[in-house]
Amino acid sequence: MLAASSRAASLSGALRAxxxxxxxxxxxxxxxxxxxAQGTPGYSAVSGHRVTVFGSTGFLGRYLVSKLGKIGTQVxxxxxxxxxxxxxxxxxxxxxxxxxxxxxRSEQQIAECLRHSDIVYNLVGRDYETKNFxxxxxxxxGAARIARIAKECGVERLVHVSHLNASPDSTSAFYRAKFEGxxxxxxxxxxxxxxxxxxxxxxxxxxxxxxxxxxxxxRLNQSQTQCRPVHVFDVAxxxxxxxEMSRIERTLNLxxxxxxxxxxxxxxxxxxxxxxxxxxxxxxxxxAKWAANLVGKSVWWPTLSPDEVERRFIDxxxxxxxxxxxxxxxxxxxxxxxxxxxRYRSADNFIRPVTLPPRPTIIEPQL
Length: 367
Known about the structure:
The protein is α/β, with parallel strands linked by helices. The protein is 35% helix and 13% strand. The protein has a domain at 35-200 and 230-257 and 318-331: NAD(P)-binding Rossmann-like Domain (Rossmann fold, 3-Layer(aba) Sandwich). A seven-stranded parallel beta sheet has the order 5-4-3-6-7-8-12, with helices on both faces. The protein has a two-stranded antiparallel ribbon with strand order 1-2.
């Protein structure tokens, strides 16, 4: 009886005892300001960091907010549409996810979103142009505006997400605007970390899902375009890891682990979803651009733009990855394909085993 009472008392005392802080609970910012973590690591902990994620309602943004919220970070999530940010509220403990309305053209709203943060992520991007926002207005002017206001407000760190194929000489206006944004950010905020991921796949992606629905658009260039797809979870984890690391004042490339052709990815989608391989015709580039422009002006919802057609003919850059710097090992697309493509199977084939197509041998051209 006495032994049982003693064990109960010990358990009660352990539950009441506050968690002890250690040396690892302390992070010193570049300004020498301390950030102290509290509580048992997890959803209800307090990491001590206050973060703003511009572009939090997008594909990559939702996963970054989730990973930050799981470690007890207070995250400010700027939004434009009330319905686009509701799911983010559940990604952190009570009061840890702070939604604020913003417009990329409003300096006052940008300052309100980031003035209390010690690290700012800029994930804002747009695959197509509209009458209100061109590629340059979003990826260059908007990025420069965020960088300038972050600098004026004394933000410690800025992480700017660009694209692996960003280049001043690209035939794609999207890639040229991405490069212009990088240069303007580095000019204004020299300490910024530039992240260059390749095309990403996941639950809401525009790669595997799009190939399953509209394979004709991926047969451009005879499906021989080479890409380096990367899992959105890996990129989000890499971005989250940067928060606890020392400031990295350079560009980090985050491509997928393998270079694959659109032809192989179409075969992968067909094999995993147990659908026949697409027999859609291959459209010439000029005809595809004309059709994309015509359809884009005929409907109000986003469709394939002429610049996206151009991007379907551009191979991903062969730049080596910097995954070791961010402490992440990228995973192969075959490991996750069934997770995102099972929904396209028929009821009869829903639980059938997965058969993956063999990878073709890629012969590198002699220089």
